[in-house]
Amino acid sequence: MTQQQRWTAEQIPDQTKRVFVVTGANSGLGLATTRALARRGGHVILAVRDEAKGRRAVAEITAAHPAASLEVRRLDLADLDSVRGFADRLRADRPHVDVLVNNAGVMAPPRTLSKQGHELQFACNHLGHFALTGLLLDLLAAGSDPRVVTVSSINHRQARIRFDDLNGERDYKPMGHYNQSKLANAVFGKELHRRLTESRSPVRSVLAHPGYTATNLQMGTPTGLWRVVLGRIGNPLFAQRPADGALPQLYAATDPEVESGQFIGPGGLAELRGAPTRVRLAPVAADEETGRRLWELSEQLTDVRFTFPAAV
Asked: Domain of 147?
């Protein structure tokens, strides 16, 4: 599609009987995505760390759309035990999932380690989503027009993966490690596409980024300087609304023309805002050797091995 077509959420096809899992669904891009999918008839599972916030999000959406089909389930992506528990519970009572939207993220905290000892941003933004995707892949393969949508960032183009210092033990920079995690998202989405294609799986892997969108991700940034620069200065001047920032991931999740392996982002100036269109990945994100290396490392760190069901 092109920027000139101005794709909007009103063009989302009917999603009745389709099941979506949206991580980080209680606020920002995740909430906007959930609201739009529910309006079009989709059943959305809000995968959230704070169930009370998830229930408030459900109440907000159903107040405007009483017929919305929503449920809240707890998921802490920074804790691999929580990821496994979420997947086990979902597998116990759902025969399929049609779309997984890997949306949740944290940005630029002081150096913090996850329960399993990984740098928090890498753990939550990448490893948790890697594990979740692998654990749900057979449910996705059983779905209708199944897709994995992984949300990266325009910042992935400024990053490199520090394979020799993933946890920032020698040199931790809050935004540098955020950018690393977003590059890992991009590398994962592209490598997942390769492996799905090789196995002739029906599942598509699509990448998206929201441009510059005003969410509590920036305002929640614990590091003071970045909170001021991103939240209090950048958001009011340059950022678009979450409803607009969510359009690339909604397009990736629902439009019939989207192909596996594509990267969808805003089509405006510098990809900061605008209607969704196909955009370019940084060369390192598409590099097959980088993809293989990150995949194998992620398997080791999560103890999750992907099984690729072929098309029937």
From this structure: 3-211+241-302
Q: What is the CATH classification number for the domain harbouring 29?
A: 3.40.50.720
Q: What share of the chain is helix, strand, coil (3-state, %, to 5)?
A: 50, 15, 40
3 state SS of 113? strand
Domain contains 307: no
Asked if residue 9 is part of any domain, the answer here is yes
Tell me how far CA of residue 251 lies from CA of 8, 85, 148, 299, in angstroms: 8, 29, 12, 29
Residue of 172, 178, 212, 251 marked active site: 178
CA–CA separation, 218 vs 36, rounded Å? 22
pLDDT tens for the chain, 312 residues: list them.
544 468 999 999 999 999 999 999 999 999 999 999 999 999 999 999 999 999 999 999 999 999 999 999 999 999 999 999 999 999 999 999 999 999 999 999 999 999 999 999 999 999 999 999 999 999 999 999 999 999 999 999 999 999 999 999 999 999 999 999 999 999 999 999 999 999 999 999 999 999 999 877 644 455 555 445 554 555 555 689 999 999 999 999 999 999 999 999 999 999 999 999 999 999 999 999 999 999 999 999 999 999 987 655
Note whether residue 181 is domain-resident: yes
Residue 166 φ/ψ, nearest 5 degrees: -55, -35
Residue 222 lies in a domain: no
Residue written as token pair 């059943």: 43
**Count of structural domains within the chain:** 1
Q: Clarify whether 178 is annotated catalytic.
A: yes
